[in-house]
Amino acid sequence: MMMPKGSYLSPKLLDLLNTFEEALAGRLKQLKPADREDVLRLSWMKSAMESLCGVHTDIKTLITALELPVADWDDKWIDVYLNNSVNLLDICIAFSSEISRLKQSHLFLQCVLHNLSNNSPDQFIRARSSLDGWKQHIASKNPRLDNCFSVMDNLAQTLDLPKIKNSAKGKVLMRAMYGVKVMTLFVCSIFAAAFSGSAKKLMDLQVHDTCLWADAFTDLQIFVNTETRNIYSSGKITILKELEAVDTGVKKLYPIVQDGVDPVEAEVLKNITSDLEKSAEIFSKGLDLLAMEVDGFFKIVLTGRDALLCNLRVGGNVFDHMGASNNRERQAVR
User: Fold this and answer.
1) Would you state the pLDDT for residue 315?
2) Which of 30-34, 123-127, 285-289 is predicted least confidently?
3) What domain range is 316 assigned to?
4) Does some domain include residue 1?
5) Residues 6 or more apart from 171 whose CB is under 8 A from it?
6) Which of 6, 135, 213, 293 could form a Cys-Cys staple with 25, CB 3.0–4.6 A?
């Protein structure tokens, strides 16, 4: 499958493949965090999903450039593409559900801050109740995430696509799709580990070293997976850095709210409340931006699937219709 010795590709096809793989290598290198503390920050997860969107857009561009009519697609390729797209849509739905659940926790914190800003006799009782609600909400589990691991296992089982014997364009397509699946599995594995609270199912993918992006991927995977496992082994409640900052603020605030405040501690309460408000806002905004990227990825997968199904019915190149639609949208924006 990985272009064994003796396989021939024309200069044009080889250039298309190399351009795709070099772009993938560049995205992987850019995704490696500059510092270990950046691993699994919401900002890094946003960048990871943004890169994944870029790779899936690149494969559509490659398929269009290959000028490979859908009629020439092997049934196995189509089945793999459609099955994988369904799995990815399921994963996106699960991730979006978890992001929404985490965003809901912000409501509890807003109630805490609102209660503490009032000088009512029961302000501390109300604030403590909201803090308890936040703790229970964060500790709860999202059943939608349980399906993610089995879906990713299914994707991993189809990582090595069928060998292509009589189609040079098919060989390029399969090798490029292999790179897309590897990066997709890596990013989804990290997200699932971050959201589920478990590193047990974190994937360590072994990739073909003939790919131009292999070294960049291996370097990134070792760095991120190692740090992720280290964070979990430390016993932290979460590996999301922004959520950890909020949890730290809650732990500082809770005993003060529980025991009440004397005049000497009033300034301490004010500082802790201010810090919690800032960290809660950063967490909420980070989730909003991440939600937008996950939604964008969902749309890319969905439009790709729809384009293939459309062209199966009417013929033509796989992404011709979608490309025309995108061009019209870009012209409308201009």
Assistant:
1) 59
2) 123-127
3) 11-333
4) no
5) 3, 7, 9, 164
6) 213
Integer-rounded Cα radius of gyration of the chain: 24
Which of 136, 183, 141, 194 is closest to 23 using CA atoms? Answer: 183
What is the residue type of 32? Answer: K
Quote the CA–CA distance of 144 and 141 in Å, as a whole number.
Answer: 9
Domain membership flag for residue 162: yes
Task: Please state, in angstroms and as integers, the Cα–Cα distance from residue 320 to each residue in 67, 68, 180, 243, 308, following that order.
Answer: 9, 11, 20, 43, 9
Question: What pLDDT, on the 0 to 100 scale, is given for residue 192?
Answer: 92
Instruction: Confirm whether 326 is domain-assigned.
Output: yes
User: Which residues, 6 or more positions from 12, have their beta carbon under 8 angstroms from its beta carbon?
Assistant: none
The pLDDT of residue 4: 45
What is the token pair recorded at 259?
A: 């025991």
Quote the tokens at residue 254: 């809770």
Q: What is the pTM of this model?
A: 0.87
Q: What is the pLDDT of residue 161?
A: 58
Long-range contacts of 32-35 (CB under 8 A, 24+ apart): 32/219, 32/220, 32/223, 32/224, 33/223, 33/224
Residue 72 is predicted with a pLDDT of 73
CA 110 vs CA 105, 130, 237, 278: distances in Å: 9, 9, 21, 11
Q: Which of 185, 213, 304, 221 is nearest to 2 (CA)?
A: 213
Residue 316's pLDDT band (cuts 50, 70, 90): low
DSSP run (H or E) holding 175? helix 168-196
- State how many domains the chain has: 1
In whole angstroms, give the CA distance from residue 173 to residue 17.
8
Say if residue 37 is exposed, middle or buried (CB neighbours under 10 Å; 0-12, 13-18, 19+).
exposed
Angle, vertex CA 29, rays to CA 233 and CA 36, nearest 5: 30
